[in-house]
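Researcher: Next entry in the queue.
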Amino acid sequence: MRVGRFETHLLLDGYFRLDGGAMFGVVPRVLWEKTNPPDAQNRIELALGVLLVKAPGKNILIDTGIGNKGDGHFCKIYAVDRRPSIEESLEGVGLVPRDIDIVINTHFHFDHAGGDTTRQPNGEIVPTFPNALYCVQRKEWEAAMAPNERTRGSYLLENYEVLSKLGRLELLDGDTEIVPGIRIMLTPGHTEHHQSVLIQSEGKTLCFLGDLVPTSSHVQLPYIMGYDLLPLQTLETKRALLNRACEEDWLLVFQHDPRARMGRLEKSGAKYHVTLIGGS
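Model: Structure for this entry, 280 residues:
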């Protein structure tokens, strides 16, 4: 899909599963299971969505999926299925990892930044995209480097520690324009320094929401993940962003939705309605 002068591609690093109750927080299972049926372990299927943006002279990835570093226990817990992997997805649009110039991470949780690095056959961990500069909020980086008991399961040092050591990390302080027309905006709630990405050109806007609104089911304001560190902040961030998306007719990317990857919003009373555009 074109967004003005930008060419965008919805890519995947495969699929995984998370607990449905954790994904929907206070919303009862009897409601969320209608659109997100759980398996026998109460897990729902989720996409490991990645967005490729071809900008003039630059190839930009937004998030990188889960990567190849999880052991058998990890992959079993999360039912990881990297078919297709991010490398295979890139090959499908005629690119290889060394063609990527910029990686933007919404945050450093393992299902968004796991693909930042790759474990080589000899065990060495290296950047997956050797020519890329990786962009994340400075305070997100600091939180990821010093996880606490609540966050330690989501922040895995092997996914990003080497980036700083090799000088491949650019730390951002608040809203930032990465290249003309591609802008980072802070969207706190899931993590305190979570960021989303706006792509704007020729009167069109696409928003990569990250974990602010992980699936199309989460557009309703009370649908907030139990994983969110600041759920009331998520509520207010969502309210402001989704109202703006309706008013300005944004195209929204639902990163973790395995079937509804992209859509537009309309609002009726207090409820939002999604018009889907394409599937997996």
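Model: Residues 2-276 form a domain with the Metallo-beta-lactamase; Chain A fold (CATH 3.60.15.10).
Researcher: Noted, moving on.
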